[in-house]
């Protein structure tokens, strides 16, 4: 990321700690986001969308129901990210905003890069084959793909609101379109 974006996000983290949550830690948030990403991506892959109701906004869940129902099996398999297969995580955009009713929100976009062994065609644009592992002979080689996903987490900080982060955007480029 650019130095400007890095500085801006650190400034927003300071504002979050000063005005919304004195206990906020980006390291702890990132750990939780990785766990949530792994759980949600596996549930998407398994088509267990009813289990996502507490984790994902109703709007996103409705869109996911439509997209998952027509997704090819190999693309659905590629959605699943084991927490140990997450190679890199970074924050994208951080926003602090108020709605028309004066409610306070914080939104953090997280970007994940993960390895997946789904049987994807070689010509899938937007993904990169990282390596092929050869065990024994040519017939037993195993391909791994480096895939990306963007998940946006939102929390309402209005007094009396539940202190839960909700996923308000899910993007798996070239897989979940």
Note down, in words, how this protein is organized.
- The protein has 177 residues and is of the alpha+beta class.
- The chain has one domain: Roll (Nuclear Transport Factor 2, Chain: A), CATH 3.10.450.
- It is 32% helix and 30% strand.
- It is built from 4 helices and 5 strands, in the order H-H-H-H-E-E-E-E-E.
- The chain has helices at 3-19, 26-45, 58-69, 73-79; strands at residues 86-98, 104-116, 128-133, 142-156, 166-171.
- Strands 1, 2, 3, 4 and 5 form a 5-stranded antiparallel beta sheet that branches.
- A hairpin with a 5-residue loop joins strand 1 (86-98) and strand 2 (104-116).
- Helix 2 (26-45) runs antiparallel to helix 4.
- The radius of gyration is 18 Å and the shape is globular.
- The protein starts with a helix and ends in a 6-residue tail after the last strand.
- Mean pLDDT is 88; it is low at 130-135.
Q: How are the secondary structure elements laid out?
A:
Layout: H1 3-19, H2 26-45, H3 58-69, H4 73-79, E1 86-98, E2 104-116, E3 128-133, E4 142-156, E5 166-171
Antiparallel strand pairs: 1-2, 2-4, 3-4, 4-5
Helix pairs in contact: 2-4
Protein name: MAIP1 protein
GO molecular function, one term: ribosome binding
Organism: Eubucco bourcierii (red-headed barbet)
């Amino acid at each position: 990321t650019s130095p400007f974006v890095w500085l801006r996000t650190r400034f927003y983290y300071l504002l979050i700690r000063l005005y919304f949550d004195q206990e906020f830690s980006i390291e702890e948030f990132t750990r939780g986001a990785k766990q949530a990403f792994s759980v949600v991506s596996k549930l998407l892959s398994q088509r267990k969308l009813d289990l996502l109701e507490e984790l994902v906004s109703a709007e996103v869940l409705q869109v996911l129901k439509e997209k998952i129902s027509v997704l090819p099996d190999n693309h659905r398999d590629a959605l699943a990210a084991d927490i140990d297969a997450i190679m890199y995580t970074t924050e994208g955009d951080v926003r602090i905003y108020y709605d028309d009713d004066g409610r306070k929100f914080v939104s953090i976009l997280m970007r994940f890069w993960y390895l997946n062994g789904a049987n994807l065609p070689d010509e899938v644009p937007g993904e990169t084959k990282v390596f092929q592992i050869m065990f024994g002979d040519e017939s037993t080689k195993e391909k791994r793909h480096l895939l990306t996903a963007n998940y946006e987490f939102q929390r309402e900080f209005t007094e009396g609101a539940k202190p839960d982060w909700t996923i308000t955007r899910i993007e798996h480029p070239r897989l979940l379109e």
